[in-house]
Specification:
alpha+beta; Alpha-Beta Plaits; elongated
Length: 226
Amino acid sequence: MVEQRTPEDIYTIGVLDVNHLMPFSKPEGFEASEDFQLKDEVLARTTEFTTTLARKLRSRLISIGEDKAEGRHILRYVFSGREGLLELIIDRPAVLNAYFVKRKDAVAFLHALRATLKQELPPSTVKDLFIDSIHIAKGLEEKITHHAHHKMRAIYLHKGASLVAVAIVIVAIFEVIKAVVGIITVEVLGLGRGHPWLVTVISAVFISFFFDPIRDRIEHFIEKYF
């Protein structure tokens, strides 16, 4: 007789890499890159991660394919000798989802994953906190869903675009204000051209008053139209 199981019987481990620490996380701008060496490096890092994980788990990881859809690149693996499935979403922010039928397999995977991350992740102020936060949950409520990843990725992309746009606009405005203030200090105040520091300070003060409104308007524009 086949044992019937429900989603509540599954042990899950879900990890959302908001700090971009995971070694298999694609670098920024990867999708637009035609650099084959860079793509090989991403594949090599992913292979190194899964190889180290399998060695610490003392189980083979067998690739069962990949999906590329809706802005997600998903790699899937099964475990030799264990009833489980591993799913890696390697687009930023990277996601790791693992599913197990038996708790002992989930516990073994958790220990192996933490050991792998301690070895593979670069030094960081949040490294230990990130690793310690990974835990086992019963059921699928801890799974990082594709919808959640899509929302997080949209936030990540919009935030990056906003920062670039704000920087460009602020630099342009700063140069205009510097030119205007320079004219005022020379033509109106008669200070001559020997006070560039004064022009810079006055321009920076003007920018400080307009920075927040400019940033808010740019972020609103990007969220609305992109």
